Every structure is written in C-alpha cells, then in structure tokens.
Amino acid sequence: MTELKTKSTLYVVATPIGNLGDITLRALEILKGVDAIAAEDTRHTSGLLSHFGISKKLIAVHEHNENQSAEKLLVQLNAGENIALVTDAGTPGISDPGAVVVDFVRKAGVKVVPIPGVSAVIAALSASGISKNGFLFHGFLPASGGARRKALETLKAQTVTLVFYEAPHRILESVDDMANALGAERRITFAREITKTFETIYSCELAQAKAWLEADTNQQRGEFVLLVEAAETKAPEDFSEETIRVLKLLLADLPLKQAVKLAAEITNEKKNDLYEFALALKNLL
Prior knowledge:
By secondary structure, the chain is α/β, with parallel strands linked by helices. The chain is built from eleven helices and ten strands.
C-alpha cells in the first residue's frame, strides 16, 4: 500500500471491458486502499468489487451529474481523502464520463494519478493487423444520420486508420454511411465484444460490411470497435509536371487549403490527393 501513503489524490483507474481477469494488480491495490470510489454506475461497480472481495463507499458520477459530483469530490479530496474514479468498463474520460471531474480537481490543485489498464481501442488495433500510418481515435459518431455523415466527410481525407466506437442499434446505419462517405472499397475491421465470450474480429471491404452484419443478427449485438483503413494518397511521381507546376505557383501566394482547392479545379485532380502532396511541397518552398 505504499502508493496510498499520499493523501488527497484522485486515482483514475481503468477497469476490465469484459474479462475480469484483465484487471491489473495495481488497480486492485488502489481500489482496496482508497477511502471511496466514484463510479459511473454504482451497481455495476459493486459487482466488480464483490468479485475481488472489496467493500468501499461508492459515489455515483455519471454524465448527468458530473459537474455537481466534481464539486463534492473536491471537498472530500481537500479533506485528505484518496478517491478512485472508475467507469463501467475501460478508462474514465475516454468516450465515458470522467474528464469533467479530472479537469475540475486538477485545476483546484489536487494530484491526479492515472492507473492504466485494458483499452478496447488498443486491443482492437493489436488484433487487426493494421500497421500503416498510425491511427485517429474518434470515439462515437453522432447518433443522427445527418450529423454522422457530416462527421465522416470531415474524416474522409485522413491518411491514418480511423477508429470508432459504435452501439449495436446504430451499427447498420453507421457502416452504410461509412461506405457512402469514405468509399466502399476501403477495408473495415469489426472488433466486437472484445475480451468477452462472443468476441469477433472480422475484416472486409465496406461494400460488404452491411451484408455481413445482416447475414447473422448475432453479429449486430454487443459493443463495437470499428477500424477503417486510411485514405490512399498519390505518390509524387503519380502527378504530372503540369499539376506540380500549378500547385507550386499557387502555394507560393495562397494559403494551403485555397491553393489545393484551385489546383484541383484547374488540373481535375482530387483535392484529397493534392492536399497531402501540397503539405510536403509547402515544407520545401
């Protein structure tokens, strides 16, 4: 318990996303030693604690009361208590409540200590075989169709793997929108129910994604991590001399986005292809 000798500390504790065996020894030590545990769902956390023989005072901290809870937690922390902050599964503040509390108490001068653990994003990436260009974690897409499609359009040109969370009742609509917005030829990897009994990892082109889901309704259940391959960009040698000349002239006098827009209109090249090339050229000019 040496780590808990310090008082007035908020521990941000990652908990298992399915398999309880994934909890870390350090997380168990912290949960046993703190004065109280702030939890997204106290009933869910009670089950976790009971499994490991831990009994602690629980404080509800969820998306609807996070601001008020942050103030109450600060009072307890300033009184010298150590408090652990947990979510239902995974890490607080990562597409889950917790960031408001952490920001509030840190600004008040309270020590915040992360206790890392299992991550659905990293687990999915590790089993996907995707190794190119890094990744961008977006979290959940908007629930409404129009907002979701708009968000996907802004991500279309990203040359890194796109990583999303998605809920089962939106999965069919989401992959349909991805195929239309990002390109049906791109590959998607479904990482469903990671670490749980019915864990599934499956890859296909976005053009086939909806049909795969519809072929087995069981594959529409549970929690999803979706990994969509990066947008492809042309290599410098794929552009004509005239395209390069036009782009260089425009970049010399205009902001990058405006230069790319005009170059695309003049040369009939795709803006997405020109943008990455223009970034490289801009650094050389």
